[in-house]
Amino acid sequence: MTNSAKKVVVTGAAGNIAYSLLWRLAAGDVYGKDQPIKLTLLEVPEAVKATEGVAMELNDSAFPLVRSIEITDDATSAFDGASMAFLVGAQPRGKGMERSDLLSANGKIFVPQGQAINAGAADDIRVLVVGNPANTNALIAQQSAPDVPAERFTAMMRLDHNRALSQLAEKIGCSTPDIENVVVWGNHSSTQFPDISCATVDGKPVTELVDRSWYLDEFIPRVAKRGGEIIQVRGKSSAASAASAAIDHMRDWVQGTERWITAALPSDGSYGIEKGLVYGQPVVARDGKFELVEGLELTDFQRERIAASVAELQEERAAVADLL
Ligand code: NAX
Description:
The protein is of the alpha/beta class. It contains 10 helices and 14 strands. It has helices spanning 16-26, 48-60, 75-79, 99-120, 134-143, 158-172, 212-224, 226-234, 240-255, 300-319, and strands spanning 6-11, 37-42, 66-72, 84-87, 126-129, 153-155, 179-180, 183-185, 193-195, 200-201, 204-205, 257-266, 278-286, 289-292. A 6-stranded parallel β-sheet has the order 3-2-1-4-5-6, sandwiched between helices. It is globular, with a radius of gyration of 19 Å. Ligand NAX binds next to α1. Belongs to the LDH/MDH superfamily. MDH type 2 family.
C-alpha cells in the first residue's frame, strides 16, 4: 500500500531558488522515494502567471511522486493541511532601503503566513524559512503561530554550513563527508561564526590541519561573505546551492542524521544564546526532531563570536517589535 500524499508548500515559487528546489523536492529527495506529495505553490498575484509556467514544466517532468500541483496567492488555503513549508518568497532589498525597512517589509509577509500555518497546518508541520533576513523572518512566523510547537519553525543556515565544509575540504585536501563536527553559529549574515573547534577529519582535529591565521583571516570571512562573492562572480545571487541546502535541511529533519549539521532553531537558552532567538546551532536529527548538541565547553573566543550574532538578532527583533 502506498503512503497518502503529504502537502508541501513552496512560497516564492516563481523565483530563482524555487526553480531548482521544486525539481529536487518532486524527485523525492526530502521524504524519499515512497512518499507521494501534493505541491502547493504560493506566490504574489503578479507572479501567478509565471508560476503557472513553472507548474507546466513540473508537469512535463512527469514525476511519479507528484500527485497534484496547486497554485495560489492565498496563504490561508495554501497552508491548510500542509506538512511542510519552504518559505522562500521574500521582498528583495530595493534602492535606498535601510536594513530596518527590509526587515519590516518582509516581516509583513511572515505574520500572515505564520497565522495561516497556525490556523490550518497539519500536526506534523515543518517550516524552513529561506527568505532573508531568514532568522528574524522565522522568529516572526513562529511568534504568529502560538499553537504550533516553536521548534517546528527553523531558518536556513545549511548553506553556510555546506560552504564551510567545502572550503575546509579544499584546504585540507579531503572530501566533505570526511569532515565531522563543524557548525556555523548565529545569523545568516556577516556576524555568523563558522566554528572548527570540534571539527575532525579521520579523528584528527581540524585545528591541527589548518593555520590559525588562515582560519581567522580567510576561512571565517570567506564563508560569511560567500553570498556576496557568488553575486560578484556569477552576476546573480546563490540559487541552486541555496535550493540544495534547503533540501539537505528538510531531508535530515525528516529522515534523521547522527552527523552534526547546522540549523537555525529557536534557542533554549544554551550557550549564551537568548532563549527564543532563531539562531544557527549544532544539531543532529533523531525521530523526526532536531536535537541540540549539548555539553560543549566554549572558549572565550567562541563566546565572543556567538555573542556578536546574538546582539545582531536582538537588534533585528527590536526593529520588528511591532510585528511580534
Ligand atoms: P527571487 O527574487 O528570484 O524570488 C523571490 C520570489 O518570492 C518572487 O517570485 C516573488 O514574487 C516571491 N514573493 C515575494 N513576496 C511573496 C509573498 N508574500 N508570498 C509568496 N511569494 C512571494 O529570489 P530568490 O533568488 O529565489 O531568493 C529568495 C530569498 O532567499 C531571498 O530573500 C534571498 O535573499 C534568500 N536567500 C537566502 C539564503 C539563505 O541561506 N537563507 C541564501 C540564498 C538567498 O539569498
